[in-house]
Amino acid sequence: MGELCEFAASYLVKQLLRGIRLDHLSLYCPSSACLAWITKRLNVYNAAGAGALTSWDTLRSLRIAINSEWDTEREDSETQQAINEMLRTLPPVTSLHIHLPEFKHHIHPNNPGSVPHKIKLPNSSLARLTRLTFDCDWHYRTVLDTIRPCLDLAVLTLHLKTSTLGYNPASNSPSAFSPDPVKDIHLPQLKVLRLRQANPIALRILRHFDTPLLAELDLSFKFAGFSWDTASAPRECHWQDHIIPYITKSNCQTTVRRLRLHGVTTSCSILQELVMTCFPWITDLTLDCSRIQGQSTVLDLEHLTTSKGFSDNVPQLRTINLIRSVPSFHRDSPLSKSCTTPESQIPFAGSGGPRATPPKPRIITIGRGQVDPPQLEDYDTDPISDPEDEFDSWDFNLGVRGSSLHTLEHDYL
């Protein structure tokens, strides 16, 4: 590092060890060396405290974000050892958010064929987690192996950084290209699965999940103002082909209640098949900065939801939320960002009025005023007691939030 990291200052570690009790802590580090500084100071002051209970020890939620720089001199470097030591001695948190720089920063620039440096999370720390957010673009096999001990997870967010998750976990290993199948991962308590900045091809990771109690699936494809048009894409980009095997394997067709698709263009037929096959008991469907190919997404949805085949097979669907940016609307009638309930409810033929039974799904279109790009996935952070106090992830998450409201990302548990 060219400059001394601010985290080297002793007052920060003193606060962690001798300050007021903390429930949540976020550490935003520009480099791995900064995190190493904290670890070294913690070890020094902790030793002096003779094992007394500290603020660090009482944390329930921890977020560690390393922005872009990673010490790549050698895997047994002092920095790498310090980071491994911190992760080995994590406080007994039940909510953990790890943000790592892109994979390329883990490889020494003068030796591109070298084995990348990976963090090592102890199984004991992973086993106690109920919530995990993991931001990385590692090979999907490595991601799965990392989270495999998390049997008590209720909420899992994987921020894929637009990667196909195809990086080789051991590029110079003779067995790196062996045909051995990837071992599936069983998460018996998982209720919410969220994928951020997903490349459609990367959704093959879903094929290796088994989540029998899943209640919410949230897929976000949008990043840096770009969204995927998979309706006319090559077959390998048909993300929906990965969802059906996943839901079938997990046997959770009757447990999923909420589905969100963010930043994708699809067709009415694909959406119909997906919902009827995989999510027949959903109550809420959100299309966030997504659209259906055709002249009008709203009209297409109206025709879809009023068709007898669909309504008979998806009987619990009550709300379809269309969250869209201003350019999607006519310029002469934009909806204001300041509106708290800017909804346009589409009347359904034969609905019998508001007291009809059973009620038809409402199609609610929510518009935004002009916002400063890029927007955030505001709620994909670690949960704390008051939702109004949730910290954002601007500096370290490059995900684009396509609206000012994410219906499905509030805490349902």
Summarize the structure.
This protein is of the alpha/beta class and about 425 residues long. Helix content is about 20%, strand content about 20%. This is F-box domain-containing protein.
Distance between the termini: 42 Å
Strand percentage, roughly?
15-25%
* Helix content class: 10-25%
Order of secondary-structure elements: HEHEHEHEHEEEEEEHEEHEEHHEE
The biggest sheet, with number of strands, parallel, antiparallel or mixed sense and barrel status, is:
11 strands, parallel
Q: What is the tally of helical segments?
A: 9
Mean pLDDT: 69
In spatial order, strands of the major sheet run 1-2-3-4-5-7-9-11-13-15-16
Radius of gyration: 23 Å
What CATH calls the topology of one domain is Leucine-rich repeat, LRR (right-handed beta-alpha superhelix)
Structural class: alpha/beta
Q: What sort of overall outline do the alpha carbons produce when their principal axes are compared? A: elongated
Low-confidence stretches: 105-115, 167-180, 326-358, 368-413
CATH class of one domain: Alpha Beta
CATH architecture of one domain: Alpha-Beta Horseshoe
Number of strands: 16
Protein name: F-box domain-containing protein
